[in-house]
Amino acid sequence: MSETLLNPAVIEMCNADISALRDASLTVLGAVNWSVQPGEFWVVAGGQHSGKSDLLMHAAGLMTPQRGSIRVFGCETAEFGEAQLADRLRVGFVFAGGKLFNQLTVAENVALPLRYQRDLRLAEVARAVETLMELLELTPFTNSSPANLPANWRQRTALARALILQPELLLLDNPLGGLDARHRAWTLQFLDQLWRGHAHFVGRPMTLAVTTGDLRAWSPPQRKFAVLAEKNFSVLGAWNEREFTRHHVVKELLAEPDVTTL
Predict the structure, then answer these.
(1) Of 114, 136, 141, 117, whose CA–CA distance to 125 is shortest?
(2) Are 90 and 168 in contact (CB under 8 A)?
(3) What is the pLDDT of residues 158-217, one digit of tens each?
(4) Strands, E assignment, the chain
(5) Alpha helices in 24-105 (DSSP H)
(6) Which residues, 6 or more positions from 220, have their beta carbon under 8 angstroms from its beta carbon?
(7) For the chain, first and last CA: distance in Å?
(8) Over the chain, what is the mean pLDDT?
């Protein structure tokens, strides 16, 4: 029996010490134990500098833990190489702020993973990009530079780029950050459709994990929650479970912003 069958978790962290992206010698989270099962929707919340982005980078296999182990689709991320490329491409990642290439057009940014990772003719790439951009309402910006787009559309372009390879696991770092009310509502609805099974992705439910510094938008009880505080990763369970409301950090992450300080 294969290792993947023995360990069906999409993400499995065992006593993993998470290092900082800005300085790999710094530990931002200690002894993280986190199991993400296929079809789950996780929301990981925390304040500024709590390690949200660092945790997600490790979950994607883009960084390796200082100690402990992390498996993605049953593969040790410390051993990720060419042989594990197929499993790595099952993961889509949306960086906070998009992290797009301004020297490329919006369409070229979206096409980039396909051009590098799939042996397709240019016409096939163009069709796939056109279809996905239409779905995400990006068609008017096809030939625009990301530098000339508002933050709302840069973030949506980054989402399209992450989805072009049709991943099974989608990781999104602060996907609502900098979005106005209309785009926040669209993003929440679209992510929910991906999780339940969007027709564009053959109706296959997608496993999702997002980070946030504001819990107010993420209340549906079907989601699972975890919180980062004082270098600790704590699973809260569902929105209406006792451990959720008892955690001391949750109250501030649910608080309305103080408009007097804006």
Answers:
(1) 114
(2) yes
(3) 999 999 999 999 999 999 999 999 999 999 999 999 999 999 998 999 999 999 998 888
(4) 11-19, 27-36, 41-46, 67-72, 75-76, 91-94, 169-172, 207-212, 224-229, 232-237
(5) 52-59, 85-88
(6) 192, 239
(7) 57
(8) 88
